[in-house]
Amino acid sequence: xxxxxxxxxxxxxxxLPGWSISFFYLRERxxxxxxxxxxxxxxxxxxxxxxxxxxxIHELMLFHVYD
Length: 67
Hints:
InterPro entries: UCP037692
Protein name: YheE
Pfam family, one: DUF5342
Radius of gyration: 11 Å
Organism: Lysinibacillus capsici
Order of helices and strands: EEEEH
Strand order of the largest sheet: 1-2-3-4
Largest sheet: 4 strands, antiparallel
């Protein structure tokens, strides 16, 4: 389960899509960039079960950003 999920726009012009995201997963902190096409570019460590984490991130972004 992802905890302490946060995101902020990559660009000052908030109409340009792209977000910097960070969260904790299994007691480890992760950072990434969520791009306009849904691509996730990891900054640093990559979770061992990356595909599961990506699905959770997509759901959170749909709820928080695109709702």
